Description:
Layout (H helix, E strand, L loop, with lengths): L24 E2 L18 H17 L3 E2 L1 E2 L4 E8 L6 E9 L7 E3 L2 E14 L2 E14 L12 E9 L2 E11 L5 E10 L15
Parallel strand pairs: 1-11
Antiparallel strand pairs: 2-4, 3-11, 4-5, 5-9, 6-7, 7-8, 7-10, 10-11
Amino acid sequence: MTSVRTIAMAAGSAFWLAACVHNSTVGQARPAGAPPGPNGPPGAAGSLVSTATEMQRLYRSMGLIAGQGTIPFVASVSFLTAPSPDSTLVLLALSMPSRALSFTREGDRYAAEYTVRIEARRGATIAAQLEAKEVVRVPTFRETSRTDESVIFQQFLRLAPGRYSLGLAVKDESGLRNASEEVTLDVPALASGALSSPIAVY
């Protein structure tokens, strides 16, 4: 899929991440668990809801962040060394299917806009906060209905080692769809000579 990303960051924008009802820990080892199968007869509406729920459980059992809402996003967190030893680079990678966004015709292409909001807090103190507005452009209508995680967003944060509450929210700017999640983030202090935590590349 061909995409053009337009990023506008506004660090310090005030926002609050609603509907963050799940809380897990990211940045430390977590046990893997196999979720039970979906309930309900094949093709039933209840089965679709159950399948989405089970996928969220599966992603979370793998130590990933799975959003709650009408945009099925999945995110991962990796850690890299920063220029100074008193901080760590946190790489947040988020993916979602293009069908979760509302595309409109733009000349000979189709375009959709979405916004990602990120906030890292230590108690009542906001350690990092940003808002990024993105544009995705595809050449055909068929690309707008892809069900695989074809839209990818990545963002670096620079944080001191320690435990944080990480809030993540995604909103479709042309529709009513949105999703959010809040997790506990343990940022490690990478030892001298280290480069990063393991990072999967697709």
